[in-house]
């Protein structure tokens, strides 16, 4: 569908990438990956024609349409949500208008026998057939399905777009692009402003409806679920892996190991050649050989090793005071925002009758659609806004809070390094450069002043600053929006090792997986508690009914335990209990399946460990048998034979175990 050949982009002395060639085929789901600054967003702009390359060609057939969603765009504010989305069908609506005019003309004219009337009828028939082929009668329903899938309610359809935040308006632009059904979709961080349910809807849309997709995303679960091919921009060129992201990581590690071996061999060859030249440079009898070696040296093409930082960056929170047993207790909590139209109106209830207790050491997630009250609850905890009911903050609680506006509170006159140097203590003072590198502030970037940083860079800097402060209650509101995957891993490991309590507002499933032990779901003016991790919650979400539209509906209740649902706060503050056989059955089956998978994974890992041990011993025996005096040592020869047999048997066993594991996963 799109052919890229010999692509070169130069911004300075060193090209961003050079002589890049690949083809985007129909049904390709491509993840475009690479470290920050490698040129991912630039590549998308070139593919959609917004930017010209320094050299090379991008061939797009005339009948191929391309849709592009950038990270940042100018948004219009002069229409309603539905009117703005309807612009995706501009051609269809113009055709509809022409058909309506022709219908009116046919109704008004009476010269039925004339050639002009016959020509009008023929034009009307042709245009109407074309209109029906384009799905003209269904586009309104398609608009509603898409907007609903992206999180809008029917009440939102007629609201002016200016009433929505930038994230919601980005959803409108995404809806318009999806509704045009382009042949190639180019998406730059499409999940940044989506909640979990909208992300899952988008995954299904891209898998079922899109023809070809190229996307840049730091949401690992999203790219794993959507893509079937990975293009990595590295060392100024593109490596094409025809597998999804997780498999790409394995292949990439193997490839880099091969590169390192080849690089080391080449460096040894270069060193040997240089040594020969230096040794015999001034001997006339060796002049010919020396000249040959010099020519060989000149012909050597240096092997480049992918720029990957394999150093494990471990971040540990500084020691802090022990908090009370219950850092946060909410009783009958309610938040109502005043009416925008009438000062004495009833106002908008964000949530009410919220009763929850967070214990010391718990890591909990706040999830739900945007606008359902997650950040509002956090602001209540922080004491930033008034509320009704009771909210108790425990004894000795020291809160560390990260929100997007935290980035605006940084001292703009300090450099990045100075900012972190002022808060780092103990052994972290020796690791400041490593820490800055892990959050994409390596090299010269660490000497930039805060005032010249972008919004995303400031957010990352505020995150590092928070991680170095002694707190025992950590509240993170969308902490991963501006982090790449390695940075997320550093942050995740730090929170897992954190002795205190953590409240995490996030839509990133991979980040929350294995990190939280409880999920609080915000929606319909209520807050529900779900025990277990994020995927346990999502599993139940697929078998339980959604929140009732009316107050007092049972909605999604707490997780099923031993055939009964756990206690849950009703809108009236009372405790409800009920049976949930369907949920219990699905949950039990899910748990049993996960147990089988873990057992199979352990068996594969044990087999791999045994193979590694046998291969290590085989290598040592190889070295021993290479020594002439050991060549006839029958004890060594026998052990070598036995090791080889065991290795063959274990490799066969590993193959069977791996196939069993794949079967269980699928």
TrEMBL record:
EC number: 3.6.3.-
Keywords: ATP-binding, Coiled coil, Hydrolase, Nucleotide-binding
Coiled coil start-end: 590-624
Pfam family name, one: ABC_tran_Xtn
Molecular function in Gene Ontology: ATP binding; ATP hydrolysis activity; DNA binding
Region annotation Disordered: where it falls in the sequence: 552-587
ABC transporter domain sequence ranges: 2-260, 328-549
Name of the featured protein: ABC transporter, ATP-binding protein
Species, as recorded: Prevotella multiformis DSM 16608
Phylogenetic placement of the source organism: Bacteria, Pseudomonadati, Bacteroidota, Bacteroidia, Bacteroidales
